[in-house]
Amino acid sequence: MDEFEKAIIYCFDPNVSDxxxxxxxxxxxxxxxxxxxxxxxxxxxxxTQTVLVKFFCLQVFQEIILHRYETLSKTDRLNLRTGLxxxxxxxxxxxxxxxxxxxxxxxxxxxxFKQEYLENWLTFFDEFLSMLSPGNSSIDIFLRICKSIDExxxxxxxHRSPAELAxxxxxxxxxxxxxxxxxxxxxxxxxxHHQSPPLxxxxxxxxxxxxxxxDISLIVNDKFIPLFCKYxxxxxxxxxxxxxxxxxxNKGMDPFAKLTLIQQLEIKNIIKFAQLDDQEFNxxxxxxxxxxxxxxxxxxxxxxxxQQEGLEKKIQSGEALLEDMLQLLFQFFNNESNDVSYSVYxxxxxxxxxxxxxxxxxxxxxRHITLxxxxxxxxxxxxxxxxxxxxxxxxxxxxxxxxxxxLFRNIFRICPEMVGSFxxxxxxxxxxxxxxxxxxxxxxxxxxxINDTNNNTNINTTTTTTTTTGAVTGAVNSTNNTxxxxxxxxxxxxxxxxxxxxxxxxxxKNNSDDDMSFSDIEVxxxxxxxxxxxxxxxxxxxxxxxxxxxxxxVVVLSQSSISITEHQVVSLIxxxxxxxxxxxxxxxxxxxxxxVLKSFLDGRGIHNKDALVRSKAGYLLNKxxxxxxxxxxxxxxxxxxALKNHLIISYEIQxxxxxxxxxxxxxxxxxxxxxxxxxxxxxxxxxxxxxNNPIVKMEEIIGKQLYKGDTKENQFYYTVQLTQLxxxxxxxxxxxxxxxxxxxxxxxxxxxxxxxxxxxxxxxxIQLPSxxxxxxxxxxxxxxYMHRMVEVLGKDLKPLLVKILPILLDHATTIDTLLxxxxxxxxxxxxxxxxxxxxxxxxxxxxxxxxxxxxNTSIPPVEHSDEERALNDLKxxxxxxxxxxxxxNLASTLTSPLNLPLFQQIFNTVISGCxxxxxxxxxxxxxxxxxxxxxxxxxxxxxxxxNGFQSFIYDQVVPICFQVPLSDQFNMSDFTSTVILMEIGxxxxxxxxxYGDEFLTYMNTILLPKLNVSQEVIxxxxxLLQPSAPIKDFQELLKLFIRQKKGLPIKxxxxxxxxxxxxxxxxxxxxxxxxxxxxxxxxxxxxxxxxxxxxxxxxx
Length: 1100
Fold this sequence. Notes:
Elements: H1 3-12, H2 18-33, H3 37-47, H4 51-67, H5 74-90, H6 99-120, H7 124-130, H8 138-154, H9 162-178, H10 180-193, H11 197-210, H12 224-232, H13 238-249, H14 255-265, H15 267-270, H16 279-306, H17 312-333, H18 338-342, H19 345-356, H20 363-379, H21 392-414, H22 416-437, E1 440-441, E2 447-448, H23 470-485, H24 518-535, H25 540-558, H26 568-580, H27 590-601, H28 611-628, H29 636-643, H30 651-654, H31 659-674, H32 680-703, H33 717-732, H34 755-765, H35 768-771, H36 776-793, H37 798-810, H38 815-832, H39 837-855, H40 866-887, H41 903-914, H42 921-938, H43 949-966, H44 975-1010, H45 1015-1024, H46 1031-1045, H47 1067-1084
Antiparallel strand pairs: 1-2
Helix pairs in contact: 1-2, 3-4, 3-5, 4-6, 6-8, 8-11, 10-11, 11-13, 12-13, 13-16, 14-16, 14-17, 16-17, 16-19, 19-21, 20-21, 21-22, 21-24, 22-23, 22-24, 22-25, 24-26, 26-28, 28-31, 29-31, 31-32, 31-33, 32-33, 32-34, 33-36, 34-36, 36-38, 38-40, 39-40, 40-42, 41-42, 42-44, 43-44, 43-47, 44-45, ...
């Protein structure tokens, strides 16, 4: 071993010191970059027996061909090529070499092939083919070379330059003319005469990669197809055979040729050669069926759309091919393995999509779609009765179920009558079975007596005959016959993975009564639920026809013993389905709704031992209460009795009933009692029953100052209880409002006697921010309660606000709580409008001052930090507050004697907000809206005219209306910018209306000339600023003017506007003028410097 070989070995030896390794790397690198590196490595390649050295030499060849090939002379190139071919002939094919060396050699030869084939080496394939021999490695290496040619020349997986793509296309064309026939012949010889599985697999891999771009007849013929069929029965090579068929089917061609090809292949018969005894192989075969069927469907669609003459026979033969694939689809779709089923899902989905476009299905199509429904039901069945959210198998099945549900809904939209009768039959069967047994089946297969330990509710298990609508009834019998007459069997071998090759023997599992399982029950109800998801996309007539059907299904389920189960999945889908269709329950027969509610209120629902079922039942009971309200109220006493323990706010109860579930119950009761329009005494009785305990407990904690004893050790027991008590009282209040839902008007006091309870609670709650000032959750829940009181107390809240607002503001010590305060304050303004003047007027100044102080941070926030986002949110809320004052007729608060000293400060922040850009475009838009309202309100003739406002108009408002859109930051292609420009147009028109000729003269003689605007355009401005001119015309003129000044293309169909591009003076001069105007404006802003988004740190 000489120094060269030692150096290479040292480079890869982990035990060599870093010093020696670095020297070795330097030495080998010097060899790589030497001008005669190729010659040195060619010599060493013929002598060495060390794998690492061989690999190094081949790597050097690769780098030279890729990066320095043009530096070699013609003679050197020929010698390199000859040397590599000689090494192949004399050494490589006669020795057992590592796969890494074979692959690297193939890569090098293909890179050399790309360089030389077209001009100097057309005999490349002839030379290799002449050396193929069964007694050595020549075939192995040739197949690797063919594979590498696909990777380097054919494959589109790698990004290639246009020049390389053109060269590769030329190479493929030349190969088609000169070599492909010989290469294909060699593949055939290998498949016929060699029994080595690795060689056969490599040959098949070559075929599947080449078939997409060579003449298909070279492969699809009487020589190759019988060979493929033979090898399809050989386990070690059948995967590659299957993939070859897929690539053949997938070959791009016109639809006529594609159908001819598929007809020639006879995939249905080919699959008979396969032993379907392994799941992974079944998935491959399923993928082949899936692709074939989808290609047939697409080809048929293209031929039908072409409307060419003479295609009838081809379409008929295509339909026959489709029927063959559909029979295979039904087999594989109904396979026990979901992975096998999913392999043909694409075909099932595409076929159903095709049927959606057919107005009337024929008998065959109806048979297909009926069979699909049955298979979907079969495949949706759970294997376990509990759902584990983090279980990978459950997650995978849930995803598959979503796809199956989508398929089912599409089928339902095509054949609602057939699906309806199918579901009705299934529901009746499971109900009859459960009622006959009158037992529940445990997960271990034993039967258990039903014993409701939570209460003594007697469950009526009497079955009720389902009465379907006329639309559904007509299909019931025919569907039953279809189901009963389906004679299908999925034959399974010992490992349960076999798919029976007889397409006529597909077994759709319909358990007998004795064999009824939880999965049958669950899937039958689940499909009923999915009908509601699918019916939304059907006609109104279909929806109407199914209303009674859905109602009757709910009645059947609720009066059966279906819900008496220990199986979680059954309970969950039962309650989901009941709530979905509850609105269709016949309300003229109260026993039906009674049976529904019983299932929610006893051990099946909110008293269930299963936490997930219990929680879901509580949530859905709340949903049911919101849907039915008045219809449910007669049962209010039963509901309260069932919930009485669940309403107690204590840690002991919450060990069994989490607080979030308790909130659902309080909300449900609030909606039921608040929506029942009860007599005063009766309503008070119920509210007292619900709220007395929370209110008294809250008063006790506050009165005895129990919260002062809270520590980390007791987990702040009483403080947490206070937040929960505020929550439940506020949540219960959601069912009550002082405002009429239809017209928003206040209700008469006689209908609002409930207020006394919420006022009493308010007296306690409003103390809490002062009593426990450091607790942000207390503050947050207090704001939540105040939001509710705006709706609940109505006008009775207004006199209390004078005391409440200062308390809330005092404790808004963080930006988050200040934001909550502003949301509440804006809600008050929105709800009470000008009636709130006496409350807003004295509180506005301290609120604005608090906002300015919060924004006046000594250290700027880190970009994109939470602090920066919070400050931006505060700025937005501030401007929303100012906008709300104008929107709700409270603009006079800004100019009242109490707040007038603040006016200029607020005005300056609005001007600064107008200059915001980028991420603050929403602020900029709001500020321009505010600016327009200020012009309307505070200019002469406005409802609240301000002395001296004229100077603001000319010094700041008008200049900024041009500076902002002309700035570089203003993006004319952005939608928000377009809206802002429209607002600017409105503002300028409003100024023209308020100030008349004075403003028009100012525009004509001062502002527009400063902007280097031609007199022709100035005249158009003056004309369209007149009140008589359409506002849209002026906005269009302004937009085109700004585009022109920015050097953007301008175009208009408005004959009233003419912007001449020649009038566009040098843009740079305009920008300089803009900058000067901006500087002037900043000087006029009375220290109104912006801190980034409109409000300055001093409030300017």
